[in-house]
Amino acid sequence: xxxLFVCDEKDDWNYYRNLFAGNFSKIEVAFSxxxxxxxxxxxxxxxxxxxxxxxxxxxxxxxxxADAVVEIAGERPIMFIGEKIHISSRIRPNLYExxxxxxxxxxxxxxxxxxxxxxxxxxxxxxxxxxxSIIELDRSEVLPMRIxxxxxxxxxxxxxxxxxxxxxxxxxxxxxxxxxxxxINAYAKRGIKQLYLFKNEYLKLLEEGIKKxxxxxxxxxxxxxxxxxxxQIKGVLLVHQYIKSVGVTKSLTELCSEIIETTSIVFRSYQxxxxxxxxxxxxxxxxxxxxxxxxxxxxxxxxxxxxxSDTSRKKLGLASILYDSMLTNEDLAKxxxxxxxxxxxxxxxxxxxxxxxxxxxxxxxxQFQGYSDVDFIIVQxxxxxxxxxxxxxxxxxxxxxxxxAFILATAFSTRLALLPGEQGNHLKVFREIKTLYNVGxxxxxxxxxxxxxx
Length: 454
Ligand SMILES: [Fe+2]
Prior knowledge:
Hypothetical protein af1432, 3 domains, binds fe (ii) ion
């Protein structure tokens, strides 16, 4: 457990640190000098079980800090420490008089008073954790949701569970209880990729997420490119989950069309892939991030070739969103081809899933109205110029120019995902692509990619 202590008397830190070390050896204490630093820590270094605020803070209102804590991290115990005069003049009485979980400690105090007050706060947290104890759920009643979705919200109207075994779960987010980004980060850091919701609630949450992303993307002419690219990634993440559990609906079609329309507007503000890459919010290099980046490479090629019509944009835009949508194991999105030796590290089922994913995604594309030939483009995204790709081993003269452009874009994104964050990685990737694809119908889009990348 962690405790956050907001105190601008740095000389006192050691005294408190020793009090904790001597009485609560398993508690980690983080100190903040001011509100701004405290809120940063709450957001990114938490979760914190208890927050302690010095009532004599200079230049800050201790009550404001308490309000901000609840705003960010939800209800949790806050302890105010200070002389009587500071407690009575600077802490709003409702923060401790009518509040069962907050505590005050008046200076001067004895170490045992400090220990007892801290203990009270921690007891509340332990009780909360006890309520979250392990329960048995029928696996067929719940669905896994990627953990990244929870960054879209700060509370959800449903209970959210973490899987312990195939039947045992523990509640990690309570209904309508606020949580912070740090709470989610803490799970992500433990390698947890998904949390579980009851089926109908899972669908409602996806739909709420779709509404949120559509709302941001509709402001494409006002929002910054960075915000729009991040929203596109969140949108694709939602598409990939929604399409597998529900299929193609009106709200999904609207989300896809907003994602596609945003690409050309954002690309216009960069003009080159190299400059766009500096701002592109790559983080996990997963299917959603690769999909959005692929759509920018397609847009770049379409502009470079002078083919940037609405029809072409829709074709390659939808293909970009869907091509790897049927991969359930994210790590398969980093496999380059069927003969990639890393594929052998996956289970037999996953290897079959990989072989089948272009065809399954193409089937999904056919269900969208108002988009033509997207299924052909998707099914061909792993074909290669010499006919050693899959599933149909087509050679470059059998592939349309749109397909060739799309194959180049997906090959680029996958390779980039294998060199995360390296300086000049786009240059390395481009060189590799050029040696493999500079033939037949690939030549023209490759030239266009070169012109619009650098
Ligand atoms: Fe793929």
